[in-house]
Prior knowledge:
mainly beta
Amino acid sequence: MRSLLLGIFLLSLFGAFTSKRKIETDQNETLRSVSQTSFGRGEYLEYKVSYGLFDAAKATLEIKPESQNVNGRKTMHIVGKGRSSGALRWFFKVDDSYETYVDEEAILPWRFIRHVREGGYKLDRSIDFDQYKNKAIVFQKDTKNYTVKPNTQDLLSAFYYARTLDLRSAKVGQEFIINTFFDREMYPLKIKYLGKEEIETDLGEFNCLKFRPMVEKGRVFKEEEDMTLWLSDDENKVPLRLKTNLLIGSIKMDLATYKNLSVPLNTVKE
Length: 270
């Protein structure tokens, strides 16, 4: 995988690629309805990304304020961006962007757009989803149709759908799986719940839910359990911190700025 900064960030937020498996599908007649209050239009999240002791990048996630109509459905236009910073930008310039148009009621993607600019490497790809027929149409230099599972997410929408999960009764060791289509293939994104923990960041001290995304050993990561994720223990379920060991070095991501959350972040009371 050539796309590192924003790609690893998004993969890390709610799982990463695990074992591949055969896909069987059924045609949907209607779309699901997901009731959620964890996020809405106008939300903005900005993260500081560190590689070892060095500031390496900035990553942002934004739900645009305006509602968009796609395929006759109201959608949220969500944009994720990653940009190298500091000394890294002098010798390896990175400007990545991911966009998704997510159905407001079903929390399913209709369109996914990916632009990667990393050093001399470029990639431009878009995917149109037909959630009724369980199809994904990939546009790059050519056009190809793929069969996907019902209620399939793209990489970016999977993160937002995960925030709608009811975690109030989650048990330590419980695993969650979200079916995702990425790079022309289906992948199950799997994450294990580790319990509750308090963490201290530059923004303050927060009550968190702690998770272990199960990643694919050998491509980017040393072991399947080389990553830890902390979500705010409140209605937002916002990622506050992520730590991961790579084959070379380690990455830490901390929430640096946020706007327009559904509810105030759950800080530790004095």
